[in-house]
Design a protein that fits this description.
The chain is mainly α. It contains 10 helices and 7 strands. The chain is 51% helix and 9% strand. It has a 3-stranded parallel sheet with strand order 1-2-3, sandwiched between helices. Strands 4-7 form a two-stranded parallel ribbon. Helix 1 packs parallel to helix 3 and helix 4 packs across helix 5. The chain is globular, with a radius of gyration of 19 Å.
């Protein structure tokens, strides 16, 4: 589990926090023992209040571009790390919210736009119409509306949220890590590139898995009516 730990600032992301998050994700990308990444925020007031506005107010053009690239690097890691990512971030694979949560892309209210991938990922997750609504108005939506527009996968009461998240994490951790990584990589390309090429790539990934011990174990376990024991080999 990765925890954004700035509760005194509603877990707003400053340079140090964002850099630590990036570096930890780089470590987890190479950690064969880590099967699932759960991202959460410390305290009970906010998952993350977004970028640190006080810090941004003093940036020049080049500094702002560097800041944007740092945020985008974290998003790319969450999106492409070869294991499932869970929590309330657009780049994560699965997003769960507490019923009390408020979500939005309010950057336009500050005279800027989302700079960490929000314009691209929100359109892919919710559709261009919804993305333009939220980004152009800067309005904040409730957890129920977020569920309705498919911004989150599920909504739970605050006291149940972490239990539900960890239940999903345990379910995913029991799957074959090679298959999860291949499925994630293939699905990430579903809404981009050439459809025929994506289908060809899916077939290649499917076939390549048959060289793995995990695939042989999964197929054998099914025929033998037992639970598979995946090792990532």
């Amino acid at each position: 589990m990765l925890t954004i730990d700035r509760p005194e600032a509603l877990n707003a992301l400053d340079v140090a926090t964002l850099t630590d998050l990036r570096d930890r994700l780089l470590e987890l990308r190479e950690d064969a023992e880590a099967r699932v990444v759960v991202l959460t925020g410390a305290g009970d007031k906010a998952f993350a209040a977004g970028a640190d506005i006080k810090y941004m107010s003093g940036l020049g053009v080049e500094q702002a571009k560097e800041w944007g690239e740092l945020g985008q690097s974290v998003g790319r890691l969450l999106e492409t790390i070869p294991k499932p990512t869970i929590e309330l971030a657009l780049a994560c694979d699965l997003r769960y919210a507490a019923s009390t949560a408020k979500l939005g892309q309010p950057e336009v209210n500050l005279g800027i736009i989302p700079g960490w991938g929000g314009t691209q990922r929100l359109a892919r997750v919710c559709g261009v119409g919804v993305a333009k609504d939220l980004i152009l108005t800067g309005r904040v939506v409730s957890a129920d509306e977020a569920l309705r527009i498919h911004l989150v996968n599920a909504v739970f009461e605050p006291a149940e949220l972490m239990e539900k998240v960890m239940k999903t994490a345990r379910t995913l951790s029991a799957k074959g890590p090679l298959a999860l990584a291949a499925a994630k990589a293939a699905t990430n390309h579903a809404l981009q590139g050439d459809h025929v090429e994506n289908l060809r790539s899916e077939g290649e990934r499917f076939g390549d898995l048959f060289a793995s011990e995990d695939t042989r174990e999964g197929l054998a376990a099914f025929t033998e009516k037992r639970e598979p024991r995946f090792t990532g080999a």
